[in-house]
Amino acid sequence: MKLALVTDAWHPQVNGVVRTLETVIGILRNWGHEVLVISPDQYRSMPAPSYPEIRLAVTRARNIGKRLEAFGADAVHLATEGPLCLSAQRWCRRNNCRFTTAYHTQFPEYLAKRTGLSPRVFWPYIRWFHGGSEAIMVSTDSVSRQMRMEGLHQVHHWSRGVDLENFSPDAPEPSSYARLPRPIQLYVGRVAVEKNIEAFLQTERPGSKVIVGDGPALAALRARYPDAYFAGRKSGRELAGYYAGADVFVFPSRTDTFGLVVIEALACGTPVASYPVTGPIDILTPESGVMDDFLSEAISAALKLDRQDCVSRAHQFEWTSSARQFLNGLVTASSEPKTRISMPFAANLPMAK
Q1: SS3 of residue 295 by DSSP
Q2: Per-range mean pLDDT, top range of 110-114, 323-327, 349-353
Q3: Which of 131, 211, 281, 322 has the greatest CB tally within 10 Å of its CB?
């Protein structure tokens, strides 16, 4: 199969969307599929307002259309709602090319945080963008219900996975932890306003607060909370060590659709404290995490959980299953006839490294 995947989120961005796409694309290629990635680094771009680390690509719909036609795509997937995917969506609609989409980010809530406007202001665009999609891929039951409430019923379940070879309880903890008072309370992720990190930093639990990640809010938070330890961006086995050595992982976001960092923390044996919101309510069990409207209470209770139960929960999320779900959600790009793409033999194929 030849899959054309268009995305506004790609390297050098570091976030859950990019990691999900990169991992699933790697697995599909390992299974013998050809994947064309159309991403912002291939076009002129401008910095996103209030978030210059993210580049917004600018190109005409026909330019993307030429690449789709030259590639001869069997399926077209639009991963995001940004300008690049918007151009691709316009070309597909004009040329009767079927496509699928994905709802990775709570886009209305994200924009509301940055503009001060109500999330409802942005939902008409979401409904319009995804309205022409043959299937909207969503990661959780909560998001599926949300989309149906907005009149978007063509949802397809596409869960996530975790690299269990990298994220494991035996990952060596960083040397910096030896100097920090326990319990160590950890946040990992983008350091930005929509992640609600200040709700975590304002909790009054004894111990240490550790922030791993980078983003536009980093300098301001570092100045405002000098007692917190800001470790910067980490990856690979080093990141796994930050998870494994922490006593609790704190996920303060109220705007995520899933939260890859949650299952990464669980895979390292670290219990999770969060608000009872989309993402955590779909992932966590009473044995692996605690959700509470008062984050401090969630942290206190999560510290008492059995770490092995957390590991067991994480092992229920596999990238090969995620890739299979994604593949089965795709549809043929040609206007006639409409068929879904599936690959039943994928269950016996190895995961891409």
Answers
A1: helix
A2: 323-327
A3: 211
Domain boundaries, given as residue ranges, for the chain:
2-161+318-348, 175-314
The reply to whether 2-161+318-348 and 175-314 are identical in fold is: yes
CA distances from 260 to 26, 167, 188, 254, 317 (A): 17, 12, 10, 14, 10
To which residue do tokens 């995520």 refer? 256
DSSP assignment, residue 257? S
The mean predicted confidence, pLDDT, of the chain is: 93
What is the DSSP track for 189-232?
S--SGGGTHHHHHT---SSEEEEE---TTHHHHHHH-TTSEEEE
- What's the whole-number mean pLDDT along residues 53-82? 94
The contacts of residue 353 (CB under 8 Å, 6+ apart) are: 26
Q: Over 70: is that where the pLDDT of 40 sits?
A: yes
CA distance 271 to 209: 15
CB-CB contact of 3 with 36 (8 Å): yes
Burial 174-183 (b: 16+ CB within 10 A, else e): beebeebeeb
Residues contacting residue 64 through CB under 8 Å, at least 6 positions apart: 6, 38, 84, 87, 88, 91
Q: Compute the residue count for the chain.
A: 353
Strand partners, 272: 249, 289
Q: How far apart are the first and last CA of the chain?
A: 20
CA angle 159, 166, 321 (to 5 degrees): 25
CA-to-CA dists, residue 240 to 97, 195, 249, 311, angstroms: 42, 20, 12, 13
Q: In this structure, are residues 209 and 230 in contact, taking their beta carbons and an 8 Å threshold?
A: no
Please give the Cα distance from 268 to 139 (Å, whole number).
22
pLDDT digit string, tens, across residues 289-310: 999 999 999 999 999 999 999 9
Task: Give percent above pLDDT 90 in the chain.
Answer: 86
Residue in this structure with the two tokens 């999770």, named with its chain if needed: 272
Q: What is the CATH number of domain 2-161+318-348?
A: 3.40.50.2000
Distance, CA of 135 to chain centre: 18
